[in-house]
Amino acid sequence: MDKLFLASFLGILITAHGVAGNMVCDDDIGMLEELESLEIEEENEMELSPIPAWTSERGSKVLVNVDSFGAVGDGVSDDTQAFLEAWDIACSTPKSVLLVPEGGLYLVNATRFKGPCSEKLVIQIEGTIIAPDEPENWDPELPRVWLDFSKLKGVIFQGDGVIDGSGSKWWASSCKRNKTNRCRGAPTALTIDSSSAIKVKGLTIQNSQQMHFVISQSDSVRISGVQVSAPGDSPNTDGIHITESTNVLIQDCKIGTGDDCISIVNASSNIKMKRIYCGPGHGISIGSLGKNNSTGIVTKVLLDKAFLKETTNGLRIKTWQGGSGYVREVMYQNVRMDNVSNPIIIDQFYCDSPKTCQNQTSAVNISQIVYRDISGTTKSEKAMQFACSDTVPCRDIVLSNINLEKKDGTVETYCNSAQGFGYGTVHPSADCLSSNDKECVFINQEENLEDAGTSREHIVHTEL
Ligand SMILES: *[C@@H]1O[C@H](CO)[C@@H](O)[C@H](O)[C@H]1NC(C)=O
Ligand SMILES: *[C@@H]1O[C@H](CO)[C@@H](O)[C@H](O)[C@H]1NC(C)=O
Ligand SMILES: *[C@@H]1O[C@H](CO)[C@@H](O)[C@H](O)[C@H]1NC(C)=O
Ligand SMILES: *[C@@H]1O[C@H](CO)[C@@H](O)[C@H](O)[C@H]1NC(C)=O
Ligand SMILES: *[C@@H]1O[C@H](CO)[C@@H](O)[C@H](O)[C@H]1NC(C)=O
Ligand SMILES: *[C@@H]1O[C@H](CO)[C@@H](O)[C@H](O)[C@H]1NC(C)=O
Ligand SMILES: *[C@@H]1O[C@H](CO)[C@@H](O)[C@H](O)[C@H]1NC(C)=O
Ligand SMILES: *[C@@H]1O[C@H](CO)[C@@H](O)[C@H](O)[C@H]1NC(C)=O
């Protein structure tokens, strides 16, 4: 990441505090530095050619076309067996390309595609893969998955194809749609589990039965140019869900669903999101965490450049009462909101349950959360909400250059048990954040810019 930007940012931080006569905590500076150095290698466009060169004279790639295994691709015939047979060959052959060709509509049942596979496998999806649409006929052995890939290493998923969960009957049978329905989980369209060094590029994932794309128990996953779409009222259809995974990069993705565009849950760290379009949906979320007294840990999350349109939440952290663990080192920057209901929200009283949730003494501990350069319009008056547990307050919330406005109306910030500070423009004002009383250096109101400049120099030379 841009080290010079960090230098100037810290310079501004100190200058701003010098002028405003606020407090700066050593912790804050350390935290910002650490977040700035959050390194996740970004997509190198040169590495991937749009279509692998399987026709090359050197014959470096082995083409495994599902059609050669009897897939019909008419949207009616069951192509599951053909896909499995093609998978077995592609997976066991080095440098192979499993091709789902353009033009076909392949009906495939809930299936586990298991690794480990030989090196350099590419899964090239150009056609459309659709799921059977009847929940009653779903394989009872695989209630939560449709296309499930596991134990892969160094695999590339790419193409202009579509993965379509045909989810409408599942949505209709959801207890969120109709309270008389039994609450049950539904399949995830695409799962990548227990894998590493995975790239997913292009692809459209749509109308999933429930979550669209889950990354679980995986390390080093780069997702770029993926589109996710489902109706805004389809229940629990999260776009990209990350659980128990590390070093995940999501960039240039357009996501619109009936739930979170991106959700990041337990045991995940080093998650970087860049150039994300979200809407409709419930926003970009960390959590929920801590349900049923569980432990939830999420650290080092960076969102840079996002546009959220007409979402119910913008940047959200949600935790249940009674949980434990922590969320720390989160930075959101360069975010534009358009008519978002809750643009900035930390909710430690999250309760997605028909019963009310009692307040408890234990809570997931939230600290070191930075918001900078966030602007746009809010639908609700409470443009910023920091609803934190009375017993486990949120600490070190930093706000810089925030400008959230409501068409014809005033905006405000709600705080409960939240500690932090703002500098630069912060609108609505964040005066309800309490300041940290210890471990902070008071920067004198009289301090002039020359002194601030010296401080900046000091940081540049010693810390970078
Ligand atoms: C899919 O699997 C289910 C359950 O195992 C089965 O009833 C059904 O015939 C299979 N094929 C399709 C296309 O649904
Ligand atoms: C909910 O489901 C019940 C039972 O299937 C049905 O009678 C009722 O009409 C449904 N309500 C709505 C609002 O769809
Ligand atoms: C969260 O992750 C930690 C560490 O992997 C694990 O011990 C804990 O059981 C997980 N919590 C839940 C709710 O799965
Ligand atoms: C969570 O723990 C609290 C305190 O020990 C207990 O009162 C409550 O019933 C527990 N909740 C659940 C869902 O287990
Ligand atoms: C809550 O956690 C307890 C103890 O870990 C477990 O026995 C219970 O099944 C969980 N309840 C739910 C609804 O997940
Ligand atoms: C905001 O969204 C609501 C629908 O949720 C719509 O009625 C309203 O016109 C929108 N406002 C603006 C300014 O776009
Ligand atoms: C829990 O605590 C919060 C903050 O003090 C309060 O606003 C809320 O009403 C309480 N909820 C319950 C169910 O007691
Ligand atoms: C929450 O985390 C902060 C920062 O790491 C720590 O100082 C504080 O003691 C923790 N609070 C609780 C209740 O564990």
TrEMBL record:
<dbReference type="InterPro" id="IPR000743">
    <property type="entry name" value="Glyco_hydro_28"/>
</dbReference>
<keyword id="KW-0677">Repeat</keyword>
<dbReference type="GO" id="GO:0004650">
    <property type="term" value="F:polygalacturonase activity"/>
</dbReference>
<keyword id="KW-0326">Glycosidase</keyword>
<keyword id="KW-0378">Hydrolase</keyword>
<feature type="signal peptide">
    <location>
        <begin position="1"/>
        <end position="21"/>
    </location>
</feature>
<keyword id="KW-0732">Signal</keyword>
<comment type="similarity">
    <text>Belongs to the glycosyl hydrolase 28 family.</text>
</comment>
<keyword id="KW-0134">Cell wall</keyword>
<dbReference type="Pfam" id="PF00295">
    <property type="entry name" value="Glyco_hydro_28"/>
</dbReference>
<dbReference type="InterPro" id="IPR012334">
    <property type="entry name" value="Pectin_lyas_fold"/>
</dbReference>
<keyword id="KW-0961">Cell wall biogenesis/degradation</keyword>
<protein>
    <recommendedName>
        <fullName>endo-polygalacturonase</fullName>
        <ecNumber>3.2.1.15</ecNumber>
    </recommendedName>
</protein>
<feature type="active site">
    <location>
        <position position="282"/>
    </location>
</feature>
<dbReference type="GO" id="GO:0005975">
    <property type="term" value="P:carbohydrate metabolic process"/>
</dbReference>
<dbReference type="GO" id="GO:0071555">
    <property type="term" value="P:cell wall organization"/>
</dbReference>
<keyword id="KW-0964">Secreted</keyword>
<dbReference type="InterPro" id="IPR011050">
    <property type="entry name" value="Pectin_lyase_fold/virulence"/>
</dbReference>
